[in-house]
Amino acid sequence: MAKKMTAAQLEEKLYQICEIGTFDPLTWVRTIFPWGEKGTLLEHETGPDKWQVDVLEALRDGSLHAKRSTRIAVASGHGIGKTALTAWVILWFMSCRPHPGMRVTANTMNQLSVVTWRELAKWHKLMANKHWFEWTATKFYHKAHAETWFAPAVPWSENNSEAFAGLHENHVLVLFDEASGISDVIWEVVEGAMTTPGAFWLCFGNPTKNTGRFRECFSGGRFADRWKTMHVDSREAKKTNKEELKEWEDTYGEDSDFFRVRVRGVFPRQGAMQFISGEMVREAVKRKVEVPRGAPKIMGVDVARYGDDESVIARRHGRRLEPLMTFRELDTMQLAAEVGKMINTYRPDITFVDDVGVGAGVVDRLLQLGYNVIGVNGGTSPEASNKAVYTNKRAEMWGRMRDWLASGEIPADVELMSQLVGPEYEYSNKMQIMLEKKESMKKRGLDSPDRADALALTFAFEVIPVKDDELYWEPDPVPAY
């Protein structure tokens, strides 16, 4: 039986591993984590995937050329394990490079904090030298040198680009997660840090846009000569759900933009896949509109299906959206009562309610009480005039909402704004617009767009407002709950 090492011997061994790992991240990753060790989370794991090995070897090659910077850009499909690799690289650099200058960011705050940074916490707990470091929600640091030896999670902002400047330490690492969504301004600022000899810049992401700095790193781009690039097909990664990938292939086609981006890891032909731009949403928040007399008053109700989601009531009066009403953990009867109260108060011309799943119960109850509501199923066909444009009713409603946003006014609701820009889209083989599903958005780390869907429901059908001289009917009283 091998003699158990003392604490001092263990520390010496860890220092030796990190000394070797300084110029060999692949060996470090294979050694520092308990691959195949019984009773650990890696009990049934054998080590990095092939594509991860390729990236770690590229880092090793860069480590041997200390007089120049190393830039690696990886465009990939979904589910390949890029977040795990991101965590390994951060932990490697922190363990093997003293007092580094580091910046870690992602396309959204949600991606950075909920996905990237939590993955770092998971792998920190697994590595043999975990006791050297401390993880917090915004900073990962060396316990003995907290002020000079750390990796910060830095949300990017075009108005705070200086947060990415001033990286002039001996060891520099910048890491972008979901790099397609990071502003060109941030890329330009980071360029200054790459003047440090031996600096590293890694960018991972799904290739959702065929414009922008991430795209320019690859073949045919302005900066392609500065970057080592890779494309990773989800079908070739060992951790992906092969059945789901085959379902996508059958649904969208292997050469569709949806499949190219989400599976093959290559850039789309159609351009940016974001359905509603951030600029359009920001302008709608700043805009102040006058609502003419007689403009229709419409309510949309999105019904929550899961515990983390919200039920939302949207009230739109012509070109203006009123502040949203949100509810959590209400059953169908309770939500129907809340909707009924708002109908009595707001007196809309019509109320559209999402009647998919549990929403049908809300619609049935409101109709039973005598309210003027219409159930809307987003999976049904669009109106005849739009069948050549949209694949289904939900895409049609979002398309009408996007057109309305060009001249409409919305409240400064941060969650609504984020949800409006969240969904991506694809073209079917008939060139109809296909809006991204909620389930797919959640897999990308985004919230379910309940607030945006509630607004979209107000565009389910054209509404002719009630004339001033028409009496508004009084529904049956809503019972108390």
Task: Give the number of DSSP strands.
Answer: 16
And the CATH topology of the largest domain?
Answer: Rossmann fold
Average of pLDDT: 89
CATH architecture of the largest domain: 3-Layer(aba) Sandwich
Count of discrete domains: 2
- Provide the β-strand percentage band: 15-25%
Cα Rg: 26 Å
Major sheet size, sense and barrel closure:
6 strands, mixed
Number of helices, counting only DSSP H or I runs of 4 residues or more: 16
Shape: elongated
- How many angstroms separate the termini? 69 Å
CATH class term of the largest domain:
Alpha Beta
**Unreliable runs, pLDDT <50, ≥5 residues?**
468-476
How would you characterize this protein structure?
This protein has 481 residues and is α/β, with parallel strands linked by helices. It has two domains: 258 residues, P-loop containing nucleotide triphosphate hydrolases (Rossmann fold, 3-Layer(aba) Sandwich), CATH 3.40.50; 180 residues, Nucleotidyltransferase, domain 5. The chain is built from 16 helices and 16 strands. The strands form four sheets. Strands 9, 10, 11, 12, 13 and 14 form a six-stranded mixed sheet that branches. A hairpin with a 7-residue loop joins strand 4 and strand 5. Helix 1 packs antiparallel against helix 2, helix 4 crosses helix 5 and helix 8 packs antiparallel against helix 9. The N and C termini lie far apart (69 Å).
